[in-house]
Amino acid sequence: MQDYALILHPADPLACVAVAEREAVLQAMGVVGAQLAADWYAAGPHLLDHVTFLGCSPVVRLAVTCDEGPGFCRLRLPPPLPHPIWRGSLEGSAPRCPRCRTPEATWPLPLAAWESDPAASQCTCSSCGYGAPLHRWRLREAAGFGRSFVELWGIHPGEAVPGEAFLDALAQCSGGSWCWFYAGAPSPTSLP
Predict the structure, then answer these.
(1) 3-state helix, strand, coil in the chain (%, to 5)
(2) Of 22, 24, 40, 121, which alpha carbon lies 20 to 30 A from 78's?
(3) Percent of the chain topping pLDDT 90
(4) Which residues contact 129 (CB under 8 A, 6 or more apart)?
């Protein structure tokens, strides 16, 4: 069984935001509820005020029931990583040039250079010659880079987007803007 997530991260992949800082912001907004397990939280009473669900009738399970499995909406605040990582499928669509939107022809080769030095690495577009770090290329909400993440599990790709107030609160906490993408993973065999 597949589970899906809406994952938020600072636009600056080197930004490091402690769990306590992320948790305090999300609790003040009512986005997170009770802690379910290490790093995992129930959806808070105001989650739906800060995440916009798209479509005519999305189904969002906010409460866990053991007989229905792990597909309910819950949040994970993992500890910051020592180094930024790429999160997304390597088989998915290639990043696109931020200037001309041409897909990176040598994908995923530029990823190794980025991982060794994210700030200094440059990926040069074979079509227009524009160069920029890989994390500035257009990822189309299919992947992201970073050290600190806010994960909203139980949300299918394209089903929801974070609201402006949600992104602004995270930006104030980290000192820079935030991005999001959608991910999928096999469901864990036990909750959360």
Answers:
(1) 20, 30, 50
(2) 121
(3) 59
(4) none
Question: Among residues 87, 75, 78, which one has the least CA distance to residue 17?
Answer: 78
What six digits make up the tokens of 122?
């440059």
d(CA 88, CA 175): 25
State the Cα–Cα distance between residues 182 and 155, nearest whole angstrom: 8
All residues at 6 or more sequence positions from 46 whose CB lies less than 8 Å from its CB, including other chains: 29, 30, 31
Who's near 117: CB < 8 A, 6+ residues apart? none
Nearest in space to 5 (alpha carbons), one of 65, 63, 71, 50: 71
d(CA 71, CA 62): 9
Q: What is the CA radius of gyration of the chain?
A: 17
Mean pLDDT over 180-187 rounds to: 81
Asked whether 10 and 174 are in contact (CB, 8 A), the reply is: yes
- Distances in Å between the Cα of 20 and the Cα atoms of 26, 76, 190 are 10, 13, 25
Predicted TM-score (pTM) of this structure: 0.89
